[in-house]
Specification:
Mean pLDDT of chain A: 92
Strand content of chain A: 5-15%
Helix content of chain B: under 10%
Structural class of chain A: alpha/beta
Strand order of the largest sheet of chain A: 1-2-3-4-5-6-7-8
Largest sheet of chain A: 8 strands, parallel
Radius of gyration of chain A: 20 Å
Largest sheet of chain B: 6 strands, antiparallel
Order of helices and strands of chain B: EEEEEEEEHE
Number of strands of chain A: 8
Number of helices of chain B: 1
Oligomer: heterodimer
Number of helices of chain A: 11
Shape of chain A: globular
Strand content of chain B: over 45%
Order of helices and strands of chain A: EHHEHEHEHEHHEHHEHEH
Low-confidence stretches of chain A: 1-11
Helix content of chain A: 25-40%
């Protein structure tokens, strides 16, 4: 009884790249030292200003502890995701994470309405990610948070960070004010292409003031969770049809936490209508599905789980085994442990691609 | 089957839980209003340490607008994805056909029953008090 208990599988645990880890602030004022004095004072006096419906309600689906794993609250206080040691102990070490990509969502500037504060918060968040996380833990990599509603400032922030290989992508919210194919966002894509960095689209809690379903607000969180998919579908279609990939042929976009099971249906539908509408969108030189297959990548969490698990294999066959990245969403409640989340047969090569090699290549990790 | 004495019963009063390691396995013990449950500390769905989850009941409904919480205290909800398991059987209520937490037999035995054996060797003074919680693997 009470013998030391460390269970290890006989085979070597495969090293993984996790494309979705959420770092949190330990205290509400944690960004203050990273803000210029002018914006620090503004932030302390006025706070942030985001467009939000349903006041006082968390905007994203929650199940456990305000959307977090119930076991991820640090013992020494602070919110889930704010303790690097706990991240190591609960996730990086046991799952054998070789690289973990940070997705900093809290008060980063993506949704801030004040242009100056949005730029300052983005800058502060990027410096904070390096200082608090990446410098302390060499397995972690940052995503460049940008004030995406103010593309000129977003470009400046991309250019400030882009030479530093600790930043591996540019983060955009999948709930922008306009569909992301809109031309006003194009300077961001131009900067991304120039920097050689992929864009990572991740859902945020807020919606730029828009009802999250496009036809009003959902009643239940189960509905709200599905809406992550609707956002991603709309943005993928917008980027493709508005011609972003035609104009920026080297641009790469990763859809994080939006699922991928819907990809074939969207492509089939767009292609079918493209035959009829092509003179409206003469700027498209190829069928929509070709842009999708060439420019879009996908992460796994939350992975679709059909009753017959092998059905998901047909979807992956369609989108390509080299297009999918493992993601955990730590410390959120729907965290996926790689040993349990993939209940379908894979060859060793397919497994290596999804869990590690695809992300190593796209993000040029080393 | 092997018997394992875990702790004095007084260490697990009603409303408490305890995770112990028995024969290499993490096992969570629960005392729900005097009923004892022992469950393997791993969610069969996503792998979480399930025994840190919330002890709850079962939401039932006969239609929209009608919600009843039944069987209070009899279910364990996984701390990650929220799957519910009947602590008495380990049975999942999300996917009952395929998923259950391994459960073990657990009971109280008096200290006197535990130390009585077939052999008598060199004797020392032993006092046996209390009852103990015993898990069968």
């Amino acid at each position: 009884m009470n013998a030391p208990f460390i269970e290890q599988k006989a085979r070597q645990t495969l090293a993984v790249v996790d494309c979705d880890i959420h770092p949190a602030h330990r205290t509400p004022g944690e960004l203050l030292p990273y803000l210029e004095p002018r914006w620090r004072e503004h932030y302390q006096t006025h706070g942030v200003h985001v467009r939000q419906a349903l006041p006082s309600a968390l905007m994203y689906p929650r199940m456990m502890a305000a959307g977090m794993r119930a076991d991820s609250l640090p013992e020494n206080g602070g919110p889930a995701g704010s303790d690097l040691d706990l991240l190591r102990k609960q996730h990086l070490d046991p799952v054998n994470v070789e690289f973990g990509l940070l997705m900093a969502l809290s008060k980063g500037g993506m949704e801030e309405r004040n242009p100056g504060l949005a730029a300052a918060l983005s800058r502060a968040t990027n410096d904070w990610q390096i200082d608090r996380w990446v410098r302390e833990e060499p397995r972690l990599r940052a995503g460049i948070v940008v004030p995406q509603e103010f593309p000129e400032a977003a470009v400046a922030e991309i250019e400030r960070c882009a030479g530093d290989r600790r930043y591996v992508q540019i983060m955009l919210s999948s709930r922008p004010s306009d569909p992301l194919g809109h031309r006003r966002y194009w300077p961001i894509y131009e900067a991304a292409e120039r920097a050689g960095l992929p864009i990572g689209l991740h859902p945020v809690g807020y919606n730029g003031g828009h009802p999250s379903t496009g036809s009003g607000w959902p009643t239940f969180y189960l509905q709200e969770h599905y809406v992550f998919v609707a956002c991603m579908e709309a943005l993928a279609a917008s980027l493709i049809i508005e011609g972003v990939f035609e104009r920026f042929p080297k641009l790469k976009v990763v859809l994080v936490e939006g699922g991928f099971g819907w990809a074939p249906a969207l492509a089939w539908r767009m292609d079918k209508h493209f035959e009829k509408f092509r003179n409206e969108v003469a700027h498209l030189k190829r069928r929509p599905s070709e842009y999708l297959r060439e420019h879009i990548w996908w992460t796994t969490q939350p992975i679709e789980e059909p009753a017959q698990s092998r059905h998901i294999v047909e979807i992956i066959d369609w989108i390509g085994w080299d297009r999918l990245f493992y993601s955990s969403d730590y410390p959120h409640w729907d965290y996926d442990n790689p040993s349990f989340a993939f209940k379908f047969p894979m060859t060793e090569e397919q497994r290596r691609k999804i869990f590690r090699d695809n992300a190593m290549a796209l993000y040029r990790l080393a | 089957m092997s018997r394992h004495v875990v702790c004095p019963a007084a260490e697990l009063p009603p409303g408490t839980r305890k995770v112990v390691v028995i024969d290499g396995r993490e096992i969570g013990l629960f005392n729900v209003e005097g009923r004892l449950h022992a469950l393997l500390n791993r969610c069969p769905h996503g792998g979480a340490a399930i025994c840190s989850g919330v002890v709850t009941g079962l939401s039932q409904s006969s239609g929209p607008g009608d919600y009843r919480l039944e069987r209070r205290g009899e279910f364990l909800r996984c701390p990650w994805h929220g799957w519910e398991f009947d602590m008495a059987t380990g049975q999942s209520w999300c996917d009952p056909r395929r998923t259950r937490v391994r459960s073990f037999e657990v009971r109280r035995e008096t200290g006197g029953d535990l130390v009585m054996g077939p052999y008598v060797a060199e004797r020392y003074h032993v006092t046996v008090e209390d009852t103990y919680i015993v898990v069968d693997l």
